[in-house]
Amino acid sequence: MKQFIITLLAVIGVLAVAVCLQPVDETAMEAVSGALSHTGYEVTVAEEQQDFLRGERYRLTLNHEEGNAVTVYVYKNADEAQKDADCITEDGFGVDYMGSGIRVEWVAEPHFFLYQNVIVQYVGTDRTVLTALQDLCGEQLAGMPISLQEEWISQPAPDEPEILLEVLPDSVRSDGLTIQLSNHSSLVGEGADVLYGEAFSLLQKMTMISCGVSKADKTQPFSETTVTWEPVPMEGIFHDLAYILPAGEQREQQVALPDLALGEYRITKEILYRPNGQEDYSSFEIYADFVVSEAK
């Protein structure tokens, strides 16, 4: 009987070792790598040590650039991946395991995606990478809002005609800049002329970081980041002039600014047009973001 028990324990031990050594399914990670490769990136995969998530951690370096990479956490199955995904804070700046919070200050905007048995982490704003991850994984599970609009260009108008507002990057100074309006309208197959004036409004991007300690564990510090857009006081009086922007054309306009401090800003302008040939004008607003990085 003793020999049988010893033999049985030995068999169980061998099976346990075999289970522990069984590799996790890396098919989903390979799909992530493939999606990035299809966009033109050369992807290099390397295993790394675990950090604040519990899956096996791999670094997918893009084009051999150390600062350009996607991190993939691989789990035994989709349920295990979902458990960790549920612990990631909505803004992507931390993880909360049963009341014990971990906060991370990323060097750029964090984005987390869930795909089958993997969690994909990308810290950055590269539109090509974000589009590839969204196409494969769907909407992010946590992180900062994703904007896939071209840099410096506003979103299209909410109603036709399509007017784009662009801040010319090289023109930005603390006391002024140059904007460009482009009329790409096509109402019922025909272009539509629009009107615009000298008036504009400004918003400044404000980032507030609040620090504290976890309610569950007073020894665990954390910080939260809040981003808002605040109006910039304007004292100038604009001339009551209307300029015509014909369909298919573009115009540049010099804009005087109230000697802004360094930071990120948004300029907004009102556009007037006649919908479908009606006599009365309708209006909508368009905007573009810009950065003041040096004084005048």
Strand residue content? 35-45%
Helix percent reads: 10-25%
Largest sheet: 6 strands, antiparallel
- Average pLDDT, rounded to a whole number, is 80
- For the record, the count of structural domains works out to 2
H/E topology pattern: HHEEEHEEEEHEEEEEEEEEE
Total helical segments: 4
Structural class: alpha+beta
CA-to-CA gap between the ends? 91 Å
Radius of gyration: 27 Å
Tally of DSSP β-strands: 17
Q: Quaternary state, please?
A: single chain
- Strand arrangement within the widest β-sheet reads 1-2-3-7-6-8
Stretches where pLDDT is under 50 for at least 5 consecutive residues are 1-22, 149-158
Principal-axis shape equals elongated
Describe the protein.
This protein has 296 residues and is of the alpha+beta class. The protein contains four helices and 17 strands. The longest helix is centred in the first third of the chain and has 20 residues. The N terminus is likely disordered.
